[in-house]
Amino acid sequence: MHALWRWIADKWVLLVGLLILLYLFVPIAVVLLLSFNQPGSRNTTYVLDFQTFDFTWNNWTDICGAAGICDSLMRSIYIGFGATLISTILGTLISFALVRYRFLGRSGTNTLIFLPMATPEIVMGTSLLTLFIGWQVPLGFLTILIAHVMFCISFVVVTVKARLAGLDPRLQEAAMDLYATPWQAFRLVILPLVLPGIVAAALLAFSLSFDDFIITNFVTGTSGYETFPMFIWGSNLRGIPPQVNAIASAMFLISFAFVIAGQLRNRRRSARRAATS
Amino acid sequence: MAALLPTASGTGAVAAEVPVEPPAGMRRRRWIPYALLAPGLLWLAVFFAYPVVQLFMASLWNPAGSVETGYVFDWSWSNYADAWQMFHVQFLRSLWYALITTAVCLLLGYPLAYAIAVKGGRWKNLMLVGVIAPFFTSYLVRTYSWKAILSDSGPVVDFLKWAHLLGPDGRLLATEFAVIAGLVYNFLPFMVLPLYASLDKLDVRLLEAARDLYHGPVRSFLRVTLPLSLPGVVAGTLLTFIPAAGDYVNANLLGGPNTQMIGSVIQSRFLVVNDYPIASALSVMLMVTILVLVTVYVSTAGTDEVV
Fold first, then answer.
1. What is the pTM of this model?
2. Does residue B131 contact residue B115 with C-beta atoms inside 8 Å?
3. A276 pLDDT above the threshold of 80
4. How many whole angstroms separate alpha carbon B229 and alpha carbon B222?
5. Facing B19 at nearest CB: one of A46, A102, A233
């Protein structure tokens, strides 16, 4: 009995933590469960009732079955790639300037990068809409892309900067002492070391863009350029097709598998390194 | 600012804000940093800063205009009074919901972050993946999933009715509880990650030292762990409070007419009613309120690491 108390006293924090972690998975499990349900009508897609649960594979076998659903998914992927590419380049350049150089206007730069992260999305959405209306820019692909790049840049800067700041500045000097030109030192020494940070930033940017709804809702207008979140939102009135759950589950399973595979690879690699050293 | 976001490596990067001295060859070319900054900062200036100024101008448009006839700018400060008059209930409610959400997230997030950072051991990274796992599905789908869980014929309501905690006609959807539950769920990872980043840097030898000096677990938590994780607490509460205050997805999907938040009002004023002056005034009010609260909060919390 004493041993049990001891064990609980030692592990209770971990147990509480695991319970909270479990709670984070509850809605995901429900989505997965609902992806196997044939709702009685489209308005009951999001009703969890075990009495009326009607098992089906249809949502998975006919995943593009709802009109427009896969088109919207493709649009989200296009926008996501575009926004990731542009924001990662722009953000990485900014973080290099911030970490590697002294210059006038540094604190102003920091403020301009911090502010978008401290501004509620709805404010950015409304202000961009005001701008686009004022300039008479037709809403659609371009305005969505512009908005997504805008809110991704700050997150890229913060992520890349963190990696860059942890880098020993003497590495560049060492490379140049060995007759590397500044460009060679950058390309052969600095860039490979910063790359994990840039990749992390790109992944972050993609997921922010792919899942954005609040800002996108403002800058889409009536263009019909409907991203996946906009498709779900737009389906609210006529009822959400159950395929949405299959797609969301697939998205979860694929990304989860990728991350876990990456983790395992890292673990194996560090184990090998530990074994050889 | 750096501490706002944990990094992939989890080090939080409160590290060197001080720029390193560039190698001699590069010092002379002063234009280089500006060339690096220009494209990104230009993007932020044109598509973030300038639109916010535009929004402020729009909040002072004469409300007599319309989309068809156009608006006249005539310093109509009365828009703010009108906006407050019409929507102060939703405005204050949003701040209140965001505050409760932040408190609950801190209560749930701290033990989780602590468990991962201090007790996680070799499962640390896997547990972190668990924290960000909700992001692998769509935000709207997650919120709809809560709608299913809390639905009138769903398991939670069934259980509460069985336990007589809810009357026979009682429901959870369209109540404050549902909205706040959705907000807490959706923003909990934003609380956990910065908390984890600062707890992970905690030197366990400090806790051992506290124990050696006869501090009990409670006292060493309050006097050592908590103060040292304060930057994480500040960053986490900000990252939770700010999006929660402006959110309208949870209120729209899980709430009812009595739980409407300011985000829903702004959204419908802008996109449905096309009442730009009032909607802009509400947006500006929200932004200014949050900036003031953040500034006061950060300066009282006394962690200059955050901004």
1. 0.88
2. no
3. no
4. 11
5. A102
